[in-house]
Write a structure and sequence with these properties.
With 256 residues, the chain is an alpha+beta fold. Helix content is 41%, strand content 17%. The chain has two domains: 105 residues, Orthogonal Bundle (434 Repressor (Amino-terminal Domain)), CATH 1.10.260; 139 residues, no CATH class. The strands form three sheets. A three-stranded antiparallel sheet has the order 2-4-5, with helices on one face. The radius of gyration is 21 Å and the shape is elongated.
């Protein structure tokens, strides 16, 4: 089923009762899975890999065909939702409330280009941001210390590379710092993680001068496999200099 056919089918759905809980229509589930996968810039094969299901299973879901509740739960969890999200009976929200929730959840997303955190340029770009927001996907707690150490390395780099503290003779120290961070990232990769990072520039209200100023946010992710080096959806924050690094287990996946 093409996307246009799916949308037409959704438009012709009979309105569900607002009094009796019911499962979401297959067409709604299909659109929701396509939407969520698109926000992550994942191929069908990538979602299938994360969910531990076959590619044909994801394709069936996205065509609006029936699959088992177990597989729907696997797909929901892979996309970052709780079990039951795609099949559990519930009272429909209604068009107005559904639209309001959609805007609240997705209305402030920005596309952020990400690259592997392996080069000096990538480290410099991350270090010159005003802050970091960490996001990790399907990463065991055993990696928490390594993630926290990486954040500290980037914070330290931000201080050392600051124009306010740059001095003559700092170049050898900067090169050593780059190597230390690259070595740390390499070690995380040996443990099965992939680190991506990007930068988003946003306008933020300056608390001291009252002007709107440009703030650089770190955006990135650490996740399974070889994620796409394209764009990601990242929700803007209201504080000056916030950002994101995302984490996830490393498996061999194909992304575009």
């Amino acid at each position: 089923m093409s996307l246009n056919d799916l949308l037409n089918s959704m438009a012709n759905l009979t309105e569900r009762s607002r009094e009796v809980p019911s499962s979401p229509p297959l067409e709604t589930v299909a659109f929701f899975v396509r939407w969520s996968r698109g926000l992550k810039n994942w191929k069908v094969s990538t979602l299938a890999d994360y969910a531990g299901v076959s590619v044909s299973t994801v394709e069936r879901v996205e065509r609006g065909e029936k699959v088992s509740a177990e597989n729907l739960d696997r797909i929901a969890v892979a996309l970052g939702y709780e079990t039951g999200k795609l099949h559990a009976p519930r009272i429909p929200l209604g068009a107005d409330k559904a639209t309001e929730d959609l805007i609240e959840t997705y209305g402030y997303l920005e596309q952020v280009s990400v690259v592997p955190l392996k080069t000096q340029k990538a480290i410099r770009d991350a270090a010159k941001c005003a802050g970091i927001l960490v996001h990790k996907h399907a990463v065991p707690e055993v990696h928490d210390d390594g993630i926290a150490n990486l954040v500290e390395w980037i914070d330290l780099a931000g201080f050392i590379l600051s124009e306010n503290v740059e001095r003559d003779g700092q170049e050898p120290k900067r090169r050593r710092l780059y190597r230390d961070i690259q070595d740390h990232v390499t070690e995380m990769e040996r443990q099965g993680l992939t680190v991506l990072v990007g930068v988003m520039v946003v306008l933020s209200h300056c608390l001291t001068c009252g002007r709107m100023e440009s703030a650089r946010w770190i955006s990135g992710e650490l996740q399974r496999g070889h994620p796409p080096l394209g764009s990601r959806g990242l929700a803007k924050g209201s504080d000056l200099g916030s950002g994101a690094i995302r984490f996830g287990k490393n498996e061999m996946v194909s992304d575009g």
